[in-house]
Amino acid sequence: MKRLYPVSLAFGAATVLASLAALFLDKSLGYRIGPLEYAKYMWAERLVGLSVGLALLALVCAFVAGRGRFSVCLPFLGLIPLFFIGGVHSGPNPEAWCSAISV
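^ thats the sequence. predicted structure below, dont judge the formating
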């Protein structure tokens, strides 16, 4: 199971990168978004889900590998930027502009 240690480190590093990308993408959006920024908003949400999934994979690989605290701590460190994501990102009437995009 020692082969899973580098895999857990790779998943942990990918968690850090994906969560930082989600944070920067989210912070590049305004407080209220319109139809033009909706794609960026959706990519930020997808990156959050990817970060959580990668962190879970990294933790499973780290526990199966059974060595090194760094491989266990890295996924948790990667999830810290996700706590800084938030805020209102919809306009005053999101139903109107969401339906306009899908048409």
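The two ends are 52 Å apart (CA to CA).
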